[in-house]
Predict the 3D structure of the following.
Amino acid sequence: MAGIGRPQERILCISDSEREELERVRRSHSAPHSVVRRTQIILASADEETNTAIARRLGTTNPTVCHWRKRWFEQGLVGLYGEARPGRPRTHAEEKIAQLLRTVLQSKPADGTHWTVRSAASVTGLSKSTVGRMLALFGVQPQRSKSFKLTTDPLFVDKVKAIVGLYLNPPDHAVVLCVDEKTQIQALERTQPVLPLGLGYLEGVTHDYVRHGTTTLFAALDIANGQVLTQCRSRHRHQEFLGFLKHIETWLAARPRFHVHYTPTYASWLNQVERWFALLTERQIRRASFVSAKDLTEKINAFVEIYNAKAKPFVWTATSEAILGKVEHLCRSICETGY
């Protein structure tokens, strides 16, 4: 006989963009604890965890879980923030906040590429302080962007598995080197002396400079001990790169040969030596002043010598499955945009 017994729980489905917003709130250090708990309930429900299991794990009650599941079905993300409480009535209706979020997330202003607090306030009729507070609460940052580039390499998966396998489980009795080049490093000389760091004020450098040529740095990072083998060359041609490979082969004269694994196209982030290049730029190049290309080369070599004396290997923790999962998530996000 139909209608007997407790009704089954409806399966809660969320889109990738909704999951991303929920995860951002869940990780937030500024969002109210109650809101974070509600996002945990929705995410667990979307993963088909039962109401009873969610209540037990999160230390809440079954009716509370049911309440916020119902709010999600009725109002979505906005519903997790609205709850009638005694005391002073809320100044802004939920629909006004929902309109703000739809405006910022789903459209662009006529006079720019992204919304500002002032422009969003003028369109929605909310005050600037309210707009700023709501955007911060929901983790929406239209003023910021991040860069990305999807690889077009047809062998991307195979190359990722091969390279990550070398990092996490290198062959026995073998040396694994990450090789790359940092091209066109400019020898820039500041037009005036650097103002030294002092109590109460920052180091000062002039915004303009004089160019004194460039150098190209070839480097090979040993993932076992973190040391680097480098060579600076005045030109950047295939002859120089082949010369560096011969330099490496001389360095590994005891070994009969070496195998080459290529990083995928647009995926230089897989190469650990790129992280070392970033350290070199941060600590030695960006804020320095060089009177010549020779001066630049000498200071790079001095940095390498000091670095190698106390080098430690980088700790690689990402598995190939985790990397491919992130790429898959990015691809789905792009597909949702309609491109």
